[in-house]
Amino acid sequence: MKKYLNTNDLREFLVTAKRNTYAAGKGAITSSRKGSKDLAFRDNNFYYYDSYFGDKQFSGEEIVYFNDLPVWSMNYYGKMIKEDIPEGFDTTFHNALLKVSEERPYRGPELYTNRNYRYECSVEGELYYFTGVEKMFYEREEVYRLYFHGGSIK
After folding, report:
1. Cβ atoms of residues 106 and 41 within 8 Å
2. Helix boundaries (H) for the chain
3. How far apart are CA 14 and CA 148, in angstroms?
4. Which H or E run includes 130?
5. For residue 96, which of 22, 27, 56, 112 is within the disulfide window of CB 3.0 to 4.6 Å?
6. What string of DSSP letters covers 12-52?
7. Buried b vs exposed e over 43-73: b needs ≥16 C-beta within 10 Å?
8. Please, which pLDDT band fits residue 134 given cuts at 50, 70 and 90?
9. pTM for the whole structure
């Protein structure tokens, strides 16, 4: 059993976990709190847990455990800006999130485009202390925005 947390291992795990939970439509587990939607992924000494509330306006938190101790978290709040969600939004959004990388293991890439959609994600800081915002545009009009922040837990 690995005893020490390695930054590269954490980055690699975050990417794997995110590609195997919400972005992929997998990992749903029993709700931990009234009204929450919970997702989880385990790989060796790592455990990823994402719990959120709401749909068009939502708030949540991701936690990574290493050897059963919480070591990293990210909180987020997002909302649909347009009441009517344009056709293809969900597919494009999930495709953007599946492009999460070890260099940016928070949400999706800095920029992703697909037909009439543009996804943007900006981040300040680094893995252990960061803040960011992601946006989706449909035909140049912003339709979605999410704020996130997080870092290490000690």
Report:
1. no
2. 7-18, 89-97
3. 15
4. strand 129-138
5. 112
6. HHHHHHHTTTGGGT--EE--SSTT-EEEEEEETTEEEEEEE
7. eebbbbbbbbeeeeeeebebbbbbeeeebbe
8. very high
9. 0.94
Which residue type sits at 134?
A: E
Judge contact between 10 and 63, C-beta under 8 A.
Answer: no
| Per-residue pLDDT reduced to its tens digit, 25-49 | 999 999 999 999 999 999 999 999 9
Residue 1 lies in a domain: no
With respect to residue 2, please indicate whether it lies within any of the assigned structural domains. no
Read off the tokens for 73: 């978290």
Distance between CA 64 and CA 54 in Å, rounded? 22
Identify residue 125 by its one-letter amino acid code.
Answer: G
Q: Phi and psi for 72 in degrees, rounded to 5?
A: -155, 145
Distance CA 56, CA 42 (A): 28
Tell me which residue range forms the domain holding 137. Answer: 7-152
Q: Are 26 and 37 in contact (CB under 8 A)?
A: no
Query: What's the CA gap between 40 and 28, in Å, rounded?
Result: 7
